[in-house]
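G.,

No rush on this.
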Amino acid sequence: MAAADLRAELDSLLLQLLWDLEELESKRVALNARVEEGWLSLSKARYAMGAKSVGPLQYASRMEPQVCVCTSEAQNGLQKFRVVRAGAQSPEEVGPREAALRRRKGLTRIPEPEVFSASPNPLNWFGILVPHSLRQAQASFQEETLKLQMVLEMKPQMEATDSFFLGLLVAHL
């Protein structure tokens, strides 16, 4: 009876692994299609605006990403990926800047000089009226980051299932 249970468990693990592999492949295909779409839109924008209007000379000298992928270690040892947008505040930025009590009137403060901040939308580097294809390219590359997060989260889960499957197989041979 134990051998039948072992075979059933191995079969279910193998099926789960194959389903995950199929889902991973479909997400990779969608990711590649989105990347190709982004580059095609960027090419269309270069054609519409002129090759010299969309290029490295128009980039800001200080660039900051609008979307970042952050990694963290989960409790089970797997890596967890999280997409963070530039507009989101980190916990350190929330709250008062000083630990002291606020005074109603009294000391006049010298305003702090503003640090240079890049324009909220990098498309403004290329002018006010940019072609729609440039906006499509930006949206395509931002959505690609979200799909990349899903692909990156699937790989460690599949590796854990694979190692568990191989461990069961080797232990009962």
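When you get to it, here's the other one too:
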Amino acid sequence: MAIMGPNGIGKSTLLKIVMGEIRADKGEVEWGYETHLGYFAQDHEEEFQGAKETTEQWLWNFCAGRDRGFVRGQMGLMLFTKDDGEKKVSALSGGEAARLIFSRIALEEPNVLILDEPTNHLDLESIEALVAELECFEGTLVFVSHDRWFVSRLATRVVEIKPDEVTDYPGTYEEYVHHSGDDHLDVDRVVLKARREKRKKTKKMDVSVVNSAKEIRRAESDRDLLTDHIASAEQRAADIDEILAAPGFYERAASDEIAVLGNERGELKEQIERGLDEWAKLESEIERLRDSTDGTD
């Protein structure tokens, strides 16, 4: 099950409630008998806080009664080499830390997996390996991800959280897009839609306040131009996702081509996130100006 929605809507908070890390304002979470949870948090630095071991030693802590060969085999499943096993945990990159946590989760043999943005720090090869493992997972998978390819490969149920409603669709992501008529994983275009709906409800300004009107028009022009830039970046990111999701792409594509597309996709994601942050600031400024103008009525 994929849980989707704009940044700040509470997706990670929902998963923390599900995991019992924070209390819900209302209602309760109840798991069935013999439910064994595995949890990958979006912020997982605490997993290694104060750790001084090597990666192999750290993982061995979760392998009671097992020998070194078993530990190395588990690490190999997540693309760690023998030399990687000698690296200090404190020196791991974000992607290496994520892969080590997935190795630990696999050892726990959960029948329910809760994943919060699991692909954030992973390269394309690691994402492909993770998806292959998850496709073989026989339990229940609940995850939050903005990675369209990841969601398309794994989701058989989609729950979208919006500011004013929750949509639950029993089907794949592609079926959901066909049903809804909109691709909600166009890198948070849902944020723009939600805020535009809010903007439509704003009171009309007093036309006599000329200076405020000019400031509003200038800010709206900047916002609309930024919206176009974000949409262009979203479209290119969607095009890359389509290329990566094409059957047999990884078999026929050169490693350099895969790397170039992966780097471009990462840069687009950062560009879009920065654009959305700036868009939110402009929208807040427009609302502030409108509120100020309305106050003169």
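The first helix runs from residue 11 to 18. The chain has two domains: 2-180, 189-294.

Enjoy the weekend,
O.
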